[in-house]
Records
---
Amino acid sequence: MATAKKLTDNHLTCLICAKVFTDPATLQCSHTFCKSCLLKYTKTQPKAIQAKSIPCPSCRQLTKVANPESPVEKWVSQLKPSHVIQGLMDDLGESSDTCSVCKEDGETTPGAVWCTICDDVFCDGCLKLHKKMPLSRDHEVIDLCIHSNEKPKAQRFMCRIHKDEKIKLFCKDCRMAICTVCCSIKHKKCDDVETIDTMTPLVKESLIIETRNEERKIENYTENISSTNSKIEKLSTNAQEMKDQVRKVRMAAVDVLLRKEKKLLDRIDQLTKIRMDELKAHRKSQEIELQMHQQRHEFIDKAVTSHCVAEMYDIYETLSVASRDKMTSKDKRPIPSTIVFTHDTDKLRRSVAVVQLGEVKVYGGLYDRTSSPVLLQTIDCSRQGDIGPSARVCFDVAVLVVHDIKVTVVTGNGSSRLNACYTSNTTLIQNCLQLPTCPRRLAKVGGARAAVTLPDTKQIAFINFDPEPSLLSTVKTKREYYGLACLNYSQLVAGGDDSRASVDVLDMKGNVLKSINTGVIKNPFYIHVTRNNNLLFSDAAVKSLVSATCDGEVVFTYTPTQPAQETSCL
C-alpha cells in the first residue's frame, strides 16, 4: 500500500484506468498508458487501425507501429516505457531482496548480492552459477548486507540490448543512447552520431527547458482548472437565479388567472343576488295574495252557512267586481331565468399550452445575442510623447484575466511599446512594455500569457502578465508575420505580408510545422480560431473572408457585394 501511494503521488498512474501503471508503454508523443488500457482503446478507433497506427487517448497523435502487418494485439506489446518512467517505477517500486532466479521457480530465497550489469538479485547458490557463466563471470556484484539490504542504483549506463556493453554514443538521427555494438549493427546508416559525454550537457539542458515547459503547462492547467471550477460555481448560481425567475414568471401567469377567477366569481355573486332579490320580492307578494284569498274564503263560507239571502248577494257582488279587477290586472310573476357558467375546457388547455413562460438557451462564451452593446469605459492608451496620426492607430486589443483582474492589452500607437491597462481598487493603472520593434497582432496562448508579432525584426515575443507585463522570450521566424492566433497550447498560426496566400502553423520555437492555403486572401492580416478548430482569415482591406480547416480544406469563402471599407471584420 505504501509503494502504491508513492507511485500515485509521483503521477505514475494511467490516465485511462486512473490506477498505477501496469506494464506501461510510452507513445511517440511521450504520453504513457497501461498496455492493456491502450490496447482496448486502440480497438475502438477503426480509423487509427486502418492507418496502421496507435492513437494517443490524450492528444490524439498517431504512433506508427514497427510491424504493421502483425495483429493489433502485438502493436502495443512492442512499445516500451520511457527511461524516465521506467526509472521512476524502479526507484519508487518495492525493493526486491528475493533471488531473481529462484523467484522464477516460485521460491522466495533471500538474495545475497546484486549484479550491477544484469540488474538482478542472486542468492549464494545462484551466484555460483552466475560466476560460472562465461558471459557473466566478470560482472560486478555488490553485497546487499553491506548496503543495509537495499539494492543500490546502477553505477554504469549499460545498453538494454547488449547488457555487457556500456553506452558510449548517442544517435541524433534516431534520438537514442546506444553502445558501440548497436552503432555498428543498427545505426551504421545514420549520419549524425556523437559521444555520450558530448551529448550529456545538451540533453540535460534540453531536459531543463522541457521541465520549465512542463511547469508552465502545469501552471496553465492549474489555472484552467481553477477557472473551470469558478465557471461551475457561477453556472450553479446562475441556474438557481434562472429557476427563481421562472417561478416569478409562473406566479405572474397564475396571478392573471386568479384575477380572472375572482372576476367570474364576483359576477356569479352579483347575478345571483339580483335574481334572489327578485324571487324574494315575488314570494312576499304571493304571501300577501295568499292572506287575501284566505280572508275571502272565510267571508264566502260564512255567507253560505248563514242562510241570509241579503248577505249572500252582497258577497256575490263583491266577487264580481274582484273578478273584473283580476282580469284587467297584469301578471306580476317574475320572468323565468337561471344563471349558467359556460366554458370550453379543451380550448382553455390549448390556450394555456400556447402560453410561454420564457425560453432557456445556451450561448457560447460570454456573448449574449439578446443584449445591446453598452459603453462601460473608455481607456486612453496613448502615452506622453505619442504624436501624429500613427499615435491614434490601434493594431490589436485583447483582454486577459489575471488573478480575477481583467487586463486590457493594446498594440499600436506607432511605437514599440505594448500597453496594458487594468483597474485596481477603482483606480485605472496603465503599464507599458518596451519591445524591440512595433508590435502588431496579439494572441492569448493560455493562462496569463500572450504572444505578439514583431514583423520588422521577424520575431514573435511571448509576454507574461502579473498583471504588469513582462517579456518572457522572443523567437526568430523566417517570415515577417503580422497576423497571429493560438491554435492550441503548443502551436500558433501566423500570416505574413508577402502575397503567398497562406498561413504557417508554428511551434512555440518559431519552427514552421506546415502551411495552409488561404485562398483569395493574399495577405492574411487577421486570423481567428473557431471553437471547432477551424480557421478564419481576412486581409487589411477586408475584401473577403475565408474559412478553412487545420488540414487546409476550404470551408467557405465570403465576398461582400458592396465595396469593402478599410476595417477589420474579425
Note: The longest strand covers residues 394-402.
---
Amino acid sequence: MTLAPEAVGARPVPGGAAGPPRLARRLAAPEPGWTVAADAVVVGSGIAGLTAALELRTRVPRVLLVTKTQLASGSTPWAQGGIAAALDPADSPAAHRADTLVAGVGLCDPPAVDVLVTEGPRRVRELVARGAVFDRAADGGLALTREGGHGADRIAHAGGDATGAEISRALVAQLEAVRDDPGIEVVEHALVLDVLTGPAGPGGAPGRACGVTLHVIGEGSRDGVGAALGRAVVLATGGIGQVYRSSTNPAGATGDGTAAALRAGARVADVEFVQFHPTVLWLGAGVKGQLTLVSEAVRGEGALLLDTDGTRFMPDEHPLAELAPRDVVAHAIVRRLAATGSDHVWLDARHLGASFLRRRFPTIHARLLEHGIDLTTDLVPVAPAQHYHSGGVRTDAVGLSSVPGLYAVGEVACTGVHGANRLASNSLLEGLVFAHRAARHVAERAPDRRALELEPQPRTGPAALVAAAARPRVQRVATGGAGVLRSGPGLAATLDALAAVPTDAHERRDEGRPLAAPQAGEWETTNVHQVATLVAAAALVREESRGGHVRTDAPARDDAAWSVRVELALDPDGTLVGRRAPLTTGPAAPGDGPGR
C-alpha cells in the first residue's frame, strides 16, 4: 500500500499483520476540577517556550506558561555546542542557507530556511540584549567556531560548552523579573494531557484549539487535573528521546506535544527522521537513560575519530571527514562497528592540548572525569545514540499547525527547516526565530477574545492509557526496529509489537484492581507509545534512505519518488492516515525583515 499524493487525499498507512495502526484520540483522565483562562497558553520552558511567553507578554493582555517540571528544565540547558547564525561580516545568510540545505538532503523547505538564516542574526543579538553572555574573541566580538556541516565559523557559544544553560539562565531571569506581573502566570510541575478543541469545522476539519487539560502536582486549588482555556495554544514541549532505550535527552522528553497535537487532529510530518548523535559517551550495553553527549564542537576544534584498531576512518567516508553532517558520521560509525565487531569507536582530542581542552570544554571535561575519563589524556569511547527529532507537528512559517489556534515551536515542530537531517546548532536558532514569529501571529492575527468563549467539545472514541511498567517494552521495540538502521520487515514487526501493548490499562483488572490508574507515569508512557508508532509507521512508508532515516532494504536515495514530505494524522475513528505532501516552494509569511 502506498500513500496518496496530497491532491488525492490521505489514506490509511501500511502496518504489520494487524493492519493500519489505530491510536486513541484522547487520554484517560479525570474531568478537570478547575479552570483558568488566558489569551495564550504556552506549554514548555526551553528556548522556544520562554521566548514565546516573553514576546507574548508584550503583545497580549494575559499569558499562561505551563512547564512540566521547573522553568530551568527541558532540553535547552543540555545544549553544549552553540547557536548558529551568520554573525561574521565574512559570512552570509546565503552561505548558512546553502549549508542547511545540504544537511537536509533535499527535504528542507527553502522558504523556511530563508526565514531561519535571515532573521537568525537579529534574534541572537536580541538574546545578548536580554542578558545572555556569549564567549568573546580577543577583539571583543563574539567568538565564533565551526561544527559539522558548516562551511564557515558561525557558532556562538557560552561558557565554552554550556551555551544552552546560559541561554536558559538569561531567559528564565527575564521571566522571573516579571513574576509579579498580572499579565503572565507560570505553572510549574504541570503535565499537559490533551489539547482542547471546539466544534469541528467544515467537512469534519479539526475544531479550533481553545486550551489544554493539564495535571498539576501542587497544593491548593491548582493541583490535580484542570483546564487552561485560551484563544491560542503554543506547544514548545521538546523532543521524543524517551521513545528509545538511550538518548541524550532529559527524562521529560516523552513526546507529549507531538502526541497531544496528533490527538487534537493536527498533521505531523518528517517523524521518520530521527537524528542519532554520533559521539555519545559509551559506558556499556546495559546503560539506559540520559547519556553524556560529547559535543560536535569537539570535532569542530579538531578531534579525530578512530576505530578500535586505532585507524582514522572518516576521511574515506566524506570530504569533510569528522566535520561531515551528523547522519553521515553516525552511519559511518555504525558501519565501522560492524566491520570491526566493536561496540564503540574512539574520539581522540589529546593533540589539542590540555589547557585548551579544559578552557574550551569545561563541562564535557568535568562530566567525563566523573566516569574516570580524562579528555586531555585519554581516548574517549563513543557511539551513536538518539539525540534530536527533525520531524514533529507540521507548521507553516509562523508556527501555526493544521488545527486553527494551535501553534508548535522548537523541536516539537516540523517547520521544514531541517529536512532529513538537522544541521549542527540550528536547533536553538529555530526555536528562537519561530517562537518570535508565532508570538507575533498570535497577537496580530488570531481571533478576538470571543474565542475564549468556545466550549471544548468532547472527543469521541475510546481513551488510552498505557501502564508505566510497559515503557521499557516500548523502548526496546522502538530501539530494535526504528533505530539507526531499519528494514521493511523489521518495521512491520515493530508496529505489530506496539499494537500488542495494552492501551486500556485503566479498564483491565489484575486481581480485581485496575492494571494502572491515570497518573503522570502512565500518561507519559502513553505518549511514548503513540510517538513510537508514528515513527515506525512513517519509516515503513518511506522506502528509501536519506538523512536520519536508513532502510537496509532500500539503501539508495530516491529523489524521483520521495522528494516529498510524509504527513500523518488520525481520522475520526483513530486510524492513522497519511499522504505525500509536496515541499513548500513559495515565499514564507513575512517577518520583520532580515536580521543583518
Note: The domain at 274-387 is CATH 3.90.700.10 (Flavocytochrome C3; Chain A, domain 1).
